[in-house]
From TrEMBL:
Keyword Zinc: yes
Keywords assigned: Metal-binding, Oxidoreductase, Zinc
Species, as recorded: Mixta intestinalis
Lineage: Bacteria, Pseudomonadati, Pseudomonadota, Gammaproteobacteria, Enterobacterales
Molecular function per GO: alcohol dehydrogenase (NAD+) activity; zinc ion binding
Assigned protein family: Belongs to the zinc-containing alcohol dehydrogenase family.
Protein name: Alcohol dehydrogenase
EC number(s) on file: 1.1.1.1
InterPro entries cross-referenced by the UniProt entry: ADH-like_C (IPR013149), ADH-like_N (IPR013154), ADH_Zn_CS (IPR002328), GroES-like_sf (IPR011032), NAD(P)-bd_dom_sf (IPR036291)
Keyword Metal-binding: yes
Cofactor(s) needed by this chain: Zn(2+)
Length: 388
């Protein structure tokens, strides 16, 4: 089959590789219909995530058709149209039973690579280095899905392929971020980052009862999407003093909840950006923490901070600020299995629609071009979708 492979930092090639095969009775093979880029892919491509190997297949956000199932698979069958969360969950360990699937104890066969860094191994994830399991990704014609009964969700007829695609990662991540905010009627929610996850966090905040949603970014086309598709008030951080603008929009108090949907490659302004980028380039830290620091600074006292962006090691983390402002911090890699039925229901009822994020479509052979456009945010690209 053909697949998009990582061959080194910023070296992506579409190659012919072996077809996936059933390795376990609980596996399924999915013929990929649609698969999409994700901001966290850029950390892999840029070499910020260690333990990648030459030839690893990229991609973790996808949907498709079941073409083969193992003998122990009971809940899906050949021909089913399914969406698959990016984190792999066994469904039976303590963490999966407590609705923490991205913390699953049983799906990362390379646990020993992550445990010294994290203290405990996380779940496996498609195409996110060998420290996270070394699973082949979805930018391919076919992909093997372990624990298929737990991780393949049949897509109802009312939900299109393009809508289902983003329920694999962007929508559940954004929905989880809003859920973490404990939103009450009348609340103001500010979201840093108008990429796929941020846009889904905005739509989700409205579903959970927010009174006002504020979007923060610097790209005009992304701010326009936040306004037009997520009903948000928009702020361009390159032109406005974000802290002062948020105080003005909230009667001097600050947002009740702040969601960081940016992560380690945020862009700051002034000397702080120079400081962070220099330390990042010298490998003294992995993160540029401008968005998260701004969210912590601007959130009201006693408010909620939801961190969805991917982070590694950050310098100058304002712990004292968090303590003195009585902030509640919640963060996680996305627990897609926890939210999937809810999300499918929202989309089927027309209450949530992520399809607008598919701004550009490519064949699999054009995937390197798609990633270049996505990475450089050319032509207003929010998500590049590949059709194997």
């Amino acid at each position: 089959m053909r697949a998009l492979c990582w061959n080194g930092v910023n070296d992506l090639r579409v190659e012919t590789v072996a077809d996936p095969a059933l390795l376990n009775p609980h596996d399924a093979i999915i013929k990929v219909s649609l698969t999409t880029t994700c901001g966290s892919d850029l950390h892999v491509i840029d070499g910020l995530i260690p333990t990648m190997r030459e030839g690893d297949i990229l991609g973790h956000e996808f949907m498709g058709e079941v073409v083969e199932v193992g003998s122990a698979v009971k809940n899906i069958r050949r021909g089913d149209r399914v969406v698959v969360p990016s984190f792999i969950s066994c469904g039976s360990c303590w963490y999966c039973q407590h609705e923490l699937p991205s913390c699953c104890d049983n799906t990362n066969p390379h646990w020993e690579q992550g445990e010294p860094i994290l203290g405990h191994a996380t779940a496996g994830i498609y195409a996110y280095s060998h420290a996270f399991g070394g699973y082949a990704g979805s930018h391919a014609e076919y992909v093997r899905v372990p624990f298929a009964d737990n991780d393949c969700f049949v897509v109802p007829d009312e939900v299109s392929d393009q809508q289902a695609l983003f329920l694999s990662d962007a929508a559940p991540t954004g929905y989880m971020g809003a859920d973490f905010c404990n939103i009450h009627p009348g609340d103001t929610v500010a979201v840093w980052g108008c990429g796929g996850v941020g846009l889904m966090a905005m739509q989700s905040a409205w579903l959970m009862g927010a009174h006002q949603v504020i979007a923060i970014d610097r790209y005009p086309e992304r701010l326009a999407m936040a306004r037009d598709y997520a009903g948000a008030i928009t702020l361009d951080y390159s032109k406005a003093d974000i802290h002062e603008a948020l105080l003005e929009l909230t009667g001097g108090r600050g947002p009740d909840s702040c969601i960081d949907a940016v992560g380690m490659e945020a862009r700051g302004e002034g000397l702080s950006q120079v400081y962070d980028r220099t330390k990042q380039l010298l490998h003294l830290e992995t993160d540029v923490g401008a968005a998260l620091r701004q969210a912590l600074y601007s959130c009201r006292k006693g408010g909620n901070i939801s961190i969805l962006g991917v982070y590694g090691v950050m310098d100058k983390f304002p712990l004292g600020l968090m303590i003195n402002k009585s902030l509640t911090i919640r963060t996680a890699q996305q627990h897609g299995q926890r939210y999937m039925h809810r999300l499918l229901d929202h989309v089927a009822k027309g209450e949530l629609n992520p399809a607008f994020m598919a701004t550009h479509h490519f064949s699999l052979e054009e995937a390197p071009k798609g990633y270049e456009m996505f990475k450089n945010k050319e032509d207003g690209c929010v998500r590049a979708v590949f059709m194997p």
